[in-house]
Specification:
This protein is an alpha/beta fold. The chain has 13 helices and 13 strands. Helix 3 runs parallel beside helix 4, helix 4 packs parallel to helix 5 (about 90-95) and helix 6 (about 110-125) crosses helix 8.
Length: about 325
């Protein structure tokens, strides 16, 4: 098959497309790479791109029912999501339209887990504050929090959550976890992990780490009531999705001192707005939604998503059943 058009809107792949361009174009595939100036494209922008392409490799772009319907009415065969979270894609509309949606689960569990523990260490040992003061000529002393002997509560026990559990155990923490799916007893035992309800996890944990998917049912799962259930002085780490946390309630809990600190790689609005009160609070450490951002992980997912797209367009050699379809 020749004459296929592949739309690439994921920033990670866009930045590195030069590595793969020659091989893709040699297969008769035309690349469509619109300039990305923000973190993702809006639904309106996606509608302007989607009408004349066979496949899209998307980042966190808004792909709603109207975008999918326009694509289906023309030549779109599938949507390939770079990464795991598909909350920005209307999967119900995709199912109605018969448009497959693929993602890449488990592709960077280790990288996100590494970041979760890095953010936790930065938070409880005040690493950013110490670094900043030393650069200003001071020699500060901050009393941090020991991790050994503490309880880590991991919310979401997929590949990322399980990798986080392993790392928490290595730091001498006991680990409990919550998930909508119960882990097999043997797997939980291998992880030295006790599985409980979300309410129980929040109540017993010194550190709560969010690693679950965002769904229509768990938006703002960490609201004012959930924060009140947490231990006084407990800390929260979010490497999953920003809207899992009600930021207004979180800010209030931080200001009151009930929550000892937060490390956030994701936010309700990204990038974090300049007027967000979170910026004013000292007991916060921030990332920029970069859990997958290592050279190795980016190359791995670039290649995998391109392989999926090639097969959708009929120029690949893999069995499509080997790829993860979510709609």
């Amino acid at each position: 098959m020749t004459g296929s058009r592949l739309l690439i809107t994921c920033g990670h792949l866009q930045r590195n497309i030069g590595r793969y361009r020659a091989g893709i174009e040699a297969q008769g595939v035309e690349l469509v790479v619109p300039p990305l100036t923000a973190q993702q494209f809006s639904a309106g922008e996606m509608k302007s791109f989607i009408a004349d392409v066979d496949t899209v490799i998307a980042g966190d772009d808004m792909i709603d029912g109207d975008v999918l319907a326009l694509g289906k009415a023309n030549r779109l065969k599938a949507v390939v999501k770079w990464g795991i979270g598909t909350d920005s894609i209307d999967k119900e509309a995709a199912r109605r339209l018969g448009l497959p949606v693929y993602n890449t689960p488990g592709a960077f569990s280790d990288e996100v887990a590494d970041l979760a523990l890095g953010l936790l260490l930065a938070l409880v040992r005040h690493i950013p504050q110490i670094d900043a003061k030393i650069r200003d000529g001071a020699w500060p002393r901050h009393e941090g929090m020991s991790l050994a002997g503490k309880t880590a509560g991991v919310v979401g026990l997929g590949g990322i959550g399980r990798a986080i559990a392993v790392r928490c155990k290595a730091f001498g923490m006991s680990v409990t976890g919550s998930d909508v799916v119960t882990l097999p007893e043997a797997e939980a035992k291998a992880l030295s992990l006790s599985q409980r309800s979300l309410e129980e996890v929040l109540a017993v944990s010194d550190v709560v780490i969010l690693a679950c998917n965002l769904t229509a049912d768990n938006r703002h799962m960490i609201d004012a009531a959930a924060l009140r259930r947490m231990k006084p002085g407990a800390v929260l780490v979010n490497v999953a999705r920003g809207p899992l946390v009600d930021e207004r309630a979180l800010i209030a809990a931080l200001r009151s001192g009930h929550i000892g600190g937060v490390a956030l790689d994701v936010f309700e609005t990204e990038p974090l707005p300049a007027d967000s009160p979170l910026r004013e609070l000292p007991n916060c450490v921030f990332g920029s939604h970069g859990g997958s951002s290592t050279a190795e992980a980016i190359d791995r997912i670039n290649r995998l998503t391109l392989e999926i797209a090639r097969n959708v367009m009929g120029v690949g050699k893999s069995d499509m059943s080997s790829f993860n379809r979510v709609a």
